[in-house]
Automatic annotation (TrEMBL):
Protein name as it appears in the record: Uncharacterized protein
Keyword line: Signal
Region span, Disordered: 386-415
Signal peptide: 1-27
Source organism of this protein record: Cladocopium goreaui
Length: 415
């Protein structure tokens, strides 16, 4: 047990996902996970230098979604998508996993505040708008993933453009307050993406549980960097003569990480993995079921359930054919086939989001050449571990799995 308040509804979701027996994903032990990964350059570089990496993005599952008339298996706002994301983390490398979260920023940045109603005083915006509700839900669910990352002893990195209001989301602020109680702090750094060969200046913020992110700031822009930057918006006047802005072709490219920036992050991963995170874990002789029953379904649970829309996710996990929990056989249950969830696992295992061939071979080769020293060091450490194996106990063992059987009942279509 870790001595901080955790919403019971979130703990219940984590337990249900822990008890899902999803083929293949169980053995992966990912070391680097890139969520909202787009072209997946962090995961791509990580894999090339020897890390076990995964890239997760809604777009990777769109072909499956169209073919099967379902939602993308990697859409975190779907039932299967959130469960897949949690499962990837839980079966990642404990105390070493590094997770990157580039939350979709369009709803949180200043340019769209007129259509979202967001401000410092009203960060959740006007929730009458579906796109605002979807962004709030996505951020709430991302906070759950960040929370899991930190409590596993891992390190998280969250990125958004400067002046984004994403860090003012109530669930994120609440989580930061809880983590401070166990001396886990979040650090923030501002820097110019232009320093990493981006097309535009793009002032950027990164939040992380490691102070090592200070290395991302490469200083102020030079005159040449300012002069050669390309604008991402075009000004025009509407019918009433008012000046307006619209994104141009450079805007989409500015949203993709360069290999130079991805390489910098991979170097940070190498440094972070040398440090050990020691969380104040209290060993309890109580069963996990008794510990859970002692928790209260309080206002925090209600807030999480509503803001992250967790009720349907709980029903999906609770009714999944993949659930392996002995008590389920005594209860009536709708059973979901979980085809979408399994499809998502297959996509991750097959390297969805890891381009082959790479989109920019020359830039990739340059960055890989500079990472060779780190790759050689990693290989030497792996060899040392093989020569002198150390037994690792798992203090987080799966209580309740010894006698489990699958749930039975009528099969129904998932989301």
């Amino acid at each position: 047990m870790i001595g901080i308040a955790m919403a019971q509804v979130v703990v219940l979701l984590i337990l249900l996902v822990w008890w899902l027996e999803i083929p293949r994903c169980q053995q992966s032990e990912y070391q680097v996970v890139e969520f909202y990964s787009g072209v997946g350059r962090i995961a791509e570089l990580a894999a090339k230098v020897g890390f076990v990496a995964a890239a997760v993005d809604k777009d990777y599952g769109m072909d499956y979604a169209k073919k099967n008339t379902k939602r993308s298996p990697m859409d975190i706002n779907s039932n299967a998508g959130l469960i897949l994301a949690i499962h990837i983390l839980l079966f990642g490398e404990w105390e070493q996993i590094c997770a990157f979260y580039a939350i979709v920023c369009s709803s949180w940045v200043p340019v769209n505040r007129g259509s979202t109603g967001r401000s410092i005083m009203t960060p959740l915006g006007c929730e009458d708008y579906p796109n605002v509700r979807a962004s709030n839900k996505m951020t709430s669910r991302t906070v759950i993933l960040i929370w899991i990352t930190v409590l596993m002893g891992g390190t998280y990195f969250m990125e958004n453009p400067q002046n984004s209001l994403v860090a003012l989301h109530p669930r994120y602020i609440w989580m930061l307050g809880q983590l401070r109680k166990i001396d886990v702090f979040t650090y923030k750094i501002a820097f110019w993406m232009r320093k990493y060969s981006s097309l535009s200046w793009k002032r950027t913020w990164v939040w992380s549980s490691t102070p090592l992110i200070r290395a991302l700031d490469l200083g102020p822009l030079t005159e040449q960097e300012r002069f050669t930057s390309r604008p991402t918006t075009t000004r025009y006047k509407d019918a009433k003569g008012k000046t307006r802005f619209k994104g141009n072709t450079n805007l989409k490219r500015s949203q993709q990480y360069t290999y130079k920036f991805a390489g910098k992050l991979i170097r940070l991963v190498g440094e972070v993995r040398k440090q050990k995170v020691h969380l104040p874990i209290e060993v309890s002789s109580d069963s996990i079921f008794n510990l859970f029953e002692k928790m209260k379904w309080d206002q925090q649970s209600i807030a999480w359930e509503q803001e992250a829309d967790l009720r349907k996710v709980l029903q999906y996990a609770r009714g999944s054919k993949l659930l392996r929990l002995w008590m389920v056989r005594h209860l009536e249950s709708r059973v979901f086939s979980s085809e979408t969830l399994v499809a998502g696992v297959d996509m991750v295992e097959m390297g969805a989001g890891l381009p082959s061939p790479p989109s920019d071979t020359f830039e990739l080769m340059q960055e890989l050449a500079s990472l060779e020293a780190m790759k050689a060091q990693m290989e030497a450490e792996v060899k040392a571990d093989i020569d002198e194996p150390v037994a690792h106990e798992d203090p987080y063992g799966r209580a309740g799995l010894a006698e489990h059987t699958g749930a039975t009942g009528e099969e129904t279509q998932e989301d």
